[in-house]
Amino acid sequence: MIELTEIDLAAALLRAVIGVIMIAHGHNHLFGPGGVAGTARWFGGLGLRPPALHAWTSGLLEMAAGVGLLLGLATPLWTAATVGVATVAGIAAHRPNGFFVFKDGYEYVLVLAVASAALAALGPGAWSLDHLVGIDFAGGWPALGVLAAGVLGALGLLAACWRPSASADG
Fold first, then answer.
1. Does the predicted model carry a pTM greater than 0.90?
2. For the segment 49-77, what is each residue's pLDDT rounded down to a tens digit?
3. In DSSP terms, which residues pair with 162 in a beta bridge?
4. Whole-angstrom Cα distance, residue 52 to residue 129?
5. Contact 75, 120 (CB under 8 A)
6. Long-range contacts of 39-44 (CB under 8 A, 24+ apart)
7. What was the pLDDT predicted at 2?
């Protein structure tokens, strides 16, 4: 029987909540009211080029991250992906609106990114596939690595593909 510790419970709760959020968000990008075309129009309006590629990639990446986190499989990879997605959203979509989420600010994506980094610090916990197969990747340095990978990946994507002054056709 697997022992229940506070760390394992905290990791399982974080994985479950972040995982469900990421699946729901990715599903909405792909299959929500506007579908991929609507997401692509919105991404194009933000200046992400090419917008359809970003709509597909974002939706699939978010859903994969959610499933990976729910299972606790390759947790460092999916926490870094979540930090990256939240960073892109925070900079490209929410930063101009200030902090508060009720004004479409970056408050929510900041919490999502920091919670993901905290999960990386905790590790996936005993109730995870990572634990079952012997992947032990937790602590301060791994959390900083996840933050760095997510933020640097996001900044690289934005440098290569974000043209906020461009028109929405793309």
1. yes
2. 999 999 999 999 999 999 999 999 999 99
3. 48
4. 33
5. yes
6. 41/168, 44/168, 44/169, 44/170
7. 65
pLDDT digits (tens, 9 = 90+) for 115-164: 999 999 999 999 999 999 998 899 999 999 999 999 999 999 999 999 99
Task: Round to whole Å and give the CA distance between 19 and 152.
Answer: 22
- Asked if 82 and 22 count as a contact pair (C-beta separation under 8 A), the reply is yes
First and final C-alpha spacing in the chain? 55
